[in-house]
Design a protein that fits this description.
The protein is α/β, with parallel strands linked by helices and 251 residues long. Helix content is 43%, strand content 20%. It contains nine helices and twelve strands. It has helices spanning 11-23, 34-43, 60-70, 82-91, 105-126, 158-169, 177-185, 194-207, 231-238; strands at residues 3-7, 27-31, 48-52, 75-79, 97-100, 132-135, 138-141, 146-149, 152-154, 175-176, 217-220, 224-227. It has a five-stranded parallel β-sheet with strand order 2-1-3-4-5, sandwiched between helices. A hairpin with a 3-residue loop joins strand 11 (217-220) and strand 12. The longest helix is centred in the middle third of the chain and has 22 residues, at 105-126. The chain is elongated. The termini are far apart. Bound molecules: calcium ion.
């Protein structure tokens, strides 16, 4: 099911758009402020974003610009004024389409469907195979942002996924919590490295057989973490971990 984010401060319009899109089988999220909408757009994966121009918190121009810096998702901009459309074009913000208020909900649904079909065609042609990382029983699909442990899919939040992928792509390299915080959260660390610890804990709960003896992400005391690749871990991997055997005793 395609996921759509509506960033619109007029709740009546947002609700109407949502109703029509849901009737057409879409999964819809609404944000009523520009700043909150941007945050949601960055932290979750959507198939299309419907973005109003005049918004509290952060206007649609800025929201569009910042989404474009990081995401390829199609953005459909909505405005009450024809003049704004010229401005959007002039600024080259990378919006994929524009629609002026008032518009009929069926027109919106038709535009959304057309964009998704076009986008899926482009993605289908451009990336025939997904970008995979496979280490022992762990499989990370970077393209689809999905993770499997021994063929069982696990759900990861955006940051958990980014952190795990970053570590797995740099195996045997020790990273400090500060460094991980800066790389994954894209900001200067101001003593909030506890965030990293919390995320590592959550990742371990999903990928490790025994979180107190991690086989993938190793704690280097006083320094940070590293993604481990070694024979011992491989041996444990091939043991019948689902049979209830205490693997710790063998190590
Ligand atoms: Ca508005």
């Amino acid at each position: 099911m395609s996921k759509i984010l509506i960033i619109e401060d007029e709740t009546a319009i947002a609700d109407l758009e949502k109703d029509y899109l849901e009737l057409s089988g879409f999964d819809v999220t609404i944000e009523n402020r520009g700043d909150k909408g941007l945050k949601t757009a960055m932290n979750e994966d959507f198939d299309l974003i419907i973005l109003d121009l005049m918004l509290p918190g952060l206007d649609g121009f800025e929201v569009c610009r910042r989404i474009r810096e990081e995401k390829n998702v199609p953005v459909l901009m909505v405005s009450a004024k024809k003049d704004d459309i010229d401005k959007i074009r002039g600024l080259g913000l990378g919006a994929d389409d524009y629609i002026t208020k008032p518009f009929s909900p069926s027109e919106l649904v038709a535009r959304v469907k057309a964009h998704l079909a076009r986008y899926e065609r482009l993605v289908g042609v451009g990336q025939k195979t997904n970008d995979l990382i496979e280490i022992r029983g762990l499989k990370i699909d970077k393209t689809a942002r999905r993770v499997w442990v021994d063929n069982e899919e696990k759900n990861f939040t955006t940051k958990e996924f980014d952190l795990l992928t970053f570590l797995a792509e740099n195996p045997n390299h020790v990273f400090s919590k500060d460094e991980l915080f800066r790389r994954i959260w894209n900001m200067e660390s101001v003593g909030d490295i506890a965030t990293v610890t919390v995320h590592i804990k959550k990742i371990r709960e999903k990928i490790e057989y025994n979180t107190s003896k991690p086989q993938y992400i190793e704690t280097i005391w006083g320094v940070g973490y590293r993604f481990k690749i070694c024979q011992q871990a491989a041996a444990v991997r091939f043991a019948p971990r689902r049979a209830g055997i205490d693997l710790n005793r063998r190590i």
